[in-house]
């Protein structure tokens, strides 16, 4: 049983017992104590380990279900879900910034950094002249050490060249702001489901015909100048954008 149990505080803690158990299990899941699709200890084992009733254990597991951290297979038990990123796009954030707020560890691995002629859609989005080149940065993004996204970012040469040699294992937005002194403004975002491309197949362990969520994001600086165009290809089971809309 992969379970490190801390002492519960039935009287000293303001939290009820089920919440203390929930928080301990959540912490172990988010810190990698359990891998995706690994089975959690049975309800009986949890009852014995924590010295609580079945109702208390079930309430803790119910909360983890609601958070999307675990799922149940009828007659077989409770299993850890694959990490799923949920990003609220009411404000402009990088992937790592959004995930850190939820307790996840996000990182990136650089696949390529090159100067090239961009696809037409990229050139038009960035407002470039015909034949003008860009810097393309390609990375794999990880959530709790699991690959969830292949990211291709395109920058005008005046911006992209200044990223060369910087640490690109995290979000690029803070680098643009803090190292390059570019004040970020707003972003235009588009979502669509597309067939898995070769890079996503290889780095996200997907089949050729599996659908992925492709996000197109064009980021502007505070003066409205386009500075970064991105294609973000997410595993369909690993990411969700969350909106809030109001009827005016």
From TrEMBL:
SUPFAM superfamilies per the UniProt record, alphabetical: Chorismate lyase-like, Winged helix' DNA-binding domain
Record organism: Pseudomonas kuykendallii
Keywords, comma-separated and alphabetical: DNA-binding, Transcription, Transcription regulation
Entry-linked InterPro entries: Bact_HTH_transcr_reg (IPR050679), Chorismate_lyase_/UTRA_dom_sf (IPR028978), Tscrpt_reg_HTH_GntR (IPR000524), UTRA (IPR011663), WH-like_DNA-bd_sf (IPR036388), WH_DNA-bd_sf (IPR036390)
Protein name as annotated: GntR family transcriptional regulator
Database matches in Pfam families: GntR, UTRA
GO MF, one example: DNA-binding transcription factor activity
HTH gntR-type domain location: 15-83
Source species, domain of life: Bacteria
One of the GO biological process terms: negative regulation of DNA-templated transcription
